Amino acid sequence: MDTKIGTEMDGSGEENTVVILKIELENFKCHERLIVEPCGKDLFICGRNGVGKTTIADAFLWCLSGEDTRGRSNYGIKPQDAAGNELHHVETVVSTRCRFQDGGVVQFTRNYHELWTKQRGNKSADFTGHTTTYFIDGVPKKASEYTRIVSNFFGDMFLHLVIPTYFLGDGAKWKWTDRRKVLLDICGDISHMDVIRSDSALSELPDILVTHTVEDYMAIVKKTIKSERQILDAVPIRIQEAKRLSVVSCVKPGGDLDELLQSKAEAENALRVARSTTGEMDTRTQIAELKTKLAEWRARIHEIESEERKAESDYSAKCSAIDTQYELSTSQAVATQRSLTARIEILEKSSSEQQEILAKLRKENGRIKAEEFIEVEVGGDCPTCGQVLPIDFIKQEGEKARSEWNEAHAEELKRNREAGVAARSVAEETISQLSELRKQLRAAEEPINLPTYPESIVPNHEERDSLTKQCSAIETRIQKLANQTTSEEAQNPAIARAEGAITLIEEGIAAWASYNAAMEASTVAINRVGELERELRESAERYEGAQSELYLCERYIRTRSEMLDERINGKLGTIQFRLSHTAINGGVEECCDALIRTGSDSAVEYDSASTGEQIRGGLEIIEVLAQHYNMHLPIIIDRCESVSQPLPGSPSQRIYITHNGEQKTLSITTAKTQE
Question: Which bin fits 52, alpha (ψ -120 to 50), beta or left (φ > 0)?
């Protein structure tokens, strides 16, 4: 199919306005060849699904940006057969001629073609991939240079000024934060003091925000609220526990403690007097002396037993250390063997892989050496002027191609050789490491000598046995003297009375001690309750202060967003933007939601609006962007059948794409034809 629409229109375009003069497609998706010449006028494309309406717009965008009308950069552009497979041996070429505000005309061309390489010995070339070449007015350009030139001509907001839905969310790489930044750039940001002066409730903010931004200070305040909330939750429980400990559970004893202590001293004195009237004091003196001697001998027995246990423990420790060392040496040897074996296996596998790499590199080296330059016939007409290319130019291009091929071939061979040298060095190092590891493994497999234990120590029990017998005799003597003392006390009632009195007095003193300890613990608990209650009050004050500061910060953000909403939306009509919203927890969060007005006081989310309303909103934001950047570019309006009301006017050239199920073939007309 070879279609040509219209003729080029003379004259220059309006200031800061770029228009399309001609779009030429070759093997782009479903179009084998198509020439569209709007000549700077509006273009109307109509037809049913599948005839290639949107493909024309995709081709224009792909030529200049590499993306399609949905902002995608990775999509199929080559023609396909009936089974959906891409066709080979075809070149996809799109050329776009545009006129700029100064009257200059520039042609942009992007060529996407296959790479076929013929190796020595093969009868046919093999498909090895694709490459893209770029031209400005027929002059070849590198990809980076082509992108830079396109950006210089069309600006960095090219897709936003061409696709109505791109700015509002269809852009694959476009985020709401980017959209918000552009809107603030258009309407101008609002200063910190302007926001505060607009609301008297924010008068305290300048004192709060001395060294922080509102957003940073909000993060600090939220952290403070969280920590104080934890204190407010935990301290009441600790207060209840301290109050429970402050309650005294015992009853205050009767009598006076000082009187009880005086009574105990008098009773002990009476006991000493009663015992002195009998021979009990001498007997008790003997018992005390015998008990002292008994304690000395028992201490010596304990010392002897400790020495014996220490000797046995030292011997066991030495034997255990020898056993541990043997087990450790054995386990270390086993672990070393396993580690060395694992490392050897890894290196052997690595060595095998390295040999495979070397073999591949040698094979690749042979392939590179076998490659030959394939002459490509160059001819045809100049894409700019349409004249036949001169023979000298064709010859020069052929020599240039051969020179470039030789240079690339030499570089590829050099890289292959460098890779081979590096791989061979690595392989030799691996073999050296394997040899060393195998040597270490043989050493680790040497048997370990069995352990040798010291001679056991035989303790001498003679002194211990002698002291044990003497202790038994002293215990018998003490028991006889104690029986004698008991008999003497039974014959003296004064002793029993004194001892009974002392027992009762000591019980009273113990009751006072318990009571005093309980009172002291209660005092400590009461003081702790006071400290915790003070901590709770201070934490509550900090919590309320932080909540107040958070409220001020959120009010600041809400006020600033409302001011920005008013300033931004004042430049718009159908499309509106909401720059903040209330979160579930009641806080304020920044956003950049697009809305479509449906009435004087009503609006719907952009994504929920009809396609026609989305198009109208997109055209409105494009006009605002175009005025801000002083650049009117061609606008692609797809799905025009969804628009029920007339669209707003614009100095920009427009491409209208409309679905018509009854239109079986592609229809392309210009504004002049429509008239």
Answer: left
**Averaged pLDDT, 23-32:** 92
* Region of residue 7 (phi > 0: left; psi between -120 and 50: alpha; otherwise: beta): beta
Please report, for residues 118, 321, 456, 576, the alpha-carbon distance to residue 314 in angstroms, rounded to integers and kept in the order given: 85, 10, 10, 89
| Run of H or E including 593 | strand 588-597
Contact yes or no for 674/202 (Cβ under 8 A):
no
* 478: nearest Cα among 318, 285, 673, 611: 285
Closest CA to 57 of 29, 80, 82, 78: 29
Sheet holding 105-117, edge to edge: 3-5, 31-36, 19-28, 92-99, 105-117, 126-136, 139-141
Q: How far is CA 298 from the centre of its chain?
A: 72
Longest dimension (CA), the chain: 152
Strand order across the beta sheet in which 575-582 lies: 575-582, 588-597, 603-605
Residue 634 and residue 623 in contact, taking contact as beta carbons nearer than 8 Å: no
**What per-residue confidence (pLDDT) applies to 84?**
84
Residue range 3-155+640-674 in CATH 3.40.50.300: yes
Of 338, 341, 347, 357, the closest CA to residue 432 belongs to: 347
Q: Give the single-character DSSP code of 574.
A: S
How far is the first Cα of the chain from the last one, in angstroms, to the nearest whole number? 27
Query: Do 647 and 174 touch, CB atoms closer than 8 A?
Result: no
CA nearest to 147, candidates 160, 158, 138: 158
pTM for the complete prediction? 0.53
- Go through 595-619 and write b for each residue having 16 or more CB atoms within 10 A of its CB, e for each that does not: bbbeeeeebeebeebeebbbbbbbb
Domain ranges of the chain: 3-155+640-674, 303-444
Question: The tokens 């545009």 sit on which residue?
Answer: 98
Residues 668 and 657 sit within 8 Å (Cβ to Cβ): no
| Statement: residue 13 has pLDDT above 50 | no
Q: What is the mean pLDDT of the chain?
A: 81
Q: How many angstroms separate the CA atoms of 164 and 161, rounded?
A: 7
